[in-house]
Amino acid sequence: MPRPFVLTTAATTYSWAWAFTSSEILARDLNMENIYSAQGSNVPQGKAEIRILDAEIEFDGTQGMGTSIPGPAHLLASSLAACLLKNVERFHHRLPFEYTKATAHVELERQDAPPKIILARFLLEIETDENPQRCALLHKNVRKYGTITNTLSACCTIEGTLRAVRTNGTTEDFHA
């Protein structure tokens, strides 16, 4: 099991990191498909970044909420959006379900004391002419089989709508 430790710089900036023994890394490598990892860094004044696979994502590491780059809660919202979209593609193949485009809009509501996310809302717009029963089935599966949707639903309420956008311009909403 990884153990946290504190790093102290000359400016007394504190950072949390995880220390792994070589046997823990080896054990982890045996089942990499279920391991997700990221590495992050922050310096005074909040210049922060996360490194995930080959991507670097700058984020707001300041004390408050920034207005130009995402903070941790924005990244959590983006994880939910990505999960929804990835599951649309997954069920496009499994059901199959025909669509030409999917767009996810996500909002998270935060409580101040204690600080935590208490509500996640999403609107998943799908350009499709699939029948209403198939759209409802897709909505159910996207919510039920997503790693992030299942994780968030264990700690907060998730409200979501799938909106089918038809080629004739009409829309139909599906709620779960």
From TrEMBL:
Domain of life from the UniProt record: Bacteria
Pfam families xrefs: OsmC (PF02566)
Name assigned to this protein: OsmC family protein
Native organism: Microvenator marinus
Lineage: Bacteria, Deltaproteobacteria, Bradymonadales, Microvenatoraceae, Microvenator
